[in-house]
Write a structure and sequence with these properties.
Strand content: 15-25%
Largest sheet: 7 strands, mixed
Number of helices: 10
Radius of gyration: 19 Å
Structural class: alpha/beta
Strand order of the largest sheet: 3-2-1-4-5-7-6
Distance between the termini: 55 Å
Order of helices and strands: HHHHEHEHEHEHEHEHE
C-alpha cells in the first residue's frame, strides 16, 4: 500500500495523529511534554536521550555520549543533535553526539542471518561532504567498519555512553557494534538506553529471533534486557516502544546508587 494512503488511513482512524503531526511543526509547549506525547520528530530518540540525561544528572554526571550506529543520509543524526540541545535545556547535562558508519553503504552480507532477501551491498551510502555541512562541528563521524572503529573508539577519553541507536541492519554488523558494551565502567552509564531500528519493519522483512538484530540481541541477552511494558506507560501506544532495550551493567559501581529525586517515598493511609 502507498505510504501516503497509509498515513491518511492512520489519520482517519486515529485523529490524534493529526494533532501530533501539527504540533511537531509548531514550537509551543515544553520539550518534555511534547516528548511524552510523541509530538517531536523521532520520539524514540527523545525518550531514550531524555531518560539517559536524567539518570546521569541524578548520578552527578554532567556530560554523556549519544551514539547512532548507521548514519546513512544523516537525517537521524541531525535530529539527534536537535534533541540533544533540547535535552540539555531540560537537564543541564551536556551531550556529545557520535555517528558510526561505513560511509560506502552496507557491506556484503555474511550469510542468511543478515537478511539477504531484504538488503544488498551498497545500500544507504553516505554523502559525507554534504552531511558535514549540515551537522555541528561538535558532532563526530566515526567512519569505517565497526569491527575496527568500536575498539578504537573505546580507547578514547569519552563521556559515559547513555543512549545508542542501532541501525546497521545486519546481524553481523550489530554483533560487532554491541562490542561497545565492552567499555570500562567510567565510559558507560549503569543503564544504557538503546533503540533497535530493524526488529519490526515493513511486511516484507518478517523479522524473527533467528536472524538480524533480534538474533544479535538474543545472543547478548544475558546482559541486555527489554524495558518491560514501556508501551503501557506511554500515552501514545507507538510501535517504537517495542524497539527500546536497555543494557543493565549490574557490576557497575554506580548501579545501586539511588536516583529518584524524592529522598523518602511513602504512601499514607
Amino acid at each position: 500500500m502507498n505510504q501516503k494512503i497509509k498515513l491518511l488511513l492512520k489519520a482517519l482512524f486515529h485523529p490524534s495523529y493529526i494533532i501530533i503531526y501539527l504540533w511537531r511543526k509548531i514550537p509551543i509547549g515544553s520539550f518534555e511534554l511534547k516528548s511524552e506525547l510523541d509530538a517531536v520528530e523521532r520520539p524514540n530518540y527523545a525518550y531514550c536521550l531524555l531518560q539517559a540525561a536524567k539518570q546521569a544528572k541524578n548520578l552527578g554526571i554532567q556530560r554523556i555520549s549519544a551514539i547512532e550506529f548507521g548514519v546513512a543520509g544523516g537525517r537521524g543524526l541531525i535530529e539527534l543533535e536537535k534533541i540533544a540541545d533540547e535535552v540539555f535545556n531540560c537537564t543541564d547535562v551536556n551531550i556529545d553526539v557520535y555517528g558510526f558508519d561505513l560511509e560506502v553503504g552496507l557491506p556484503a552480507p555474511a550469510d542468511y542471518r543478515d537478511l539477504v532477501y531484504v538488503w544488498r551491498k551498497g545500500f544507504y551510502k553516505m554523502e559525507k561532504e554534504k552531511l558535514l555541512r549540515r551537522i555541528k562541528k561538535t558532532t563526530k563521524l566515526v567512519l569505517g567498519d565497526v569491527k575496527e572503529t568500536v575498539p578504537t573508539f573505546l580507547r578514547k577519553n569519552i563521556a559515559p555512553i547513555g543512549f545508542i541507536a542501532f541501525d546497521l541492519d545486519f546481524y553481523s554488523s550489530t554483533i560487532s557494534a554491541l562490542k561497545i558494551f565492552d567499555a570500562e565502567d567510567q565510559k558507560i552509564l549503569p543503564r544504557v538506553l538503546c533503540y533497535f531500528d530493524d526488529i519490526i519493519g515493513p511486511d516484507e522483512e518478517l523479522h524473527n529471533n533467528y536472524t538480524g538484530e533480534l538474533l544479535a540481541i538474543q545472543e547478548f541477552n544475558q546482559k541486555h534486557n527489554n524495558i518491560n511494558g514501556l508501551i503501557h506507560k506511554r500515552i501514545i501506544k507507538a510501535g517504537w516502544c517495542d524497539a527500546i532495550y536497555v543494557l543493565h551493567a549490574f557490576d557497575h559501581p554506580l548501579y545501586n546508587t539511588y536516583i529518584f529525586q524524592e529522598r523518602d517515598r511513602q504512601l499514607s493511609v
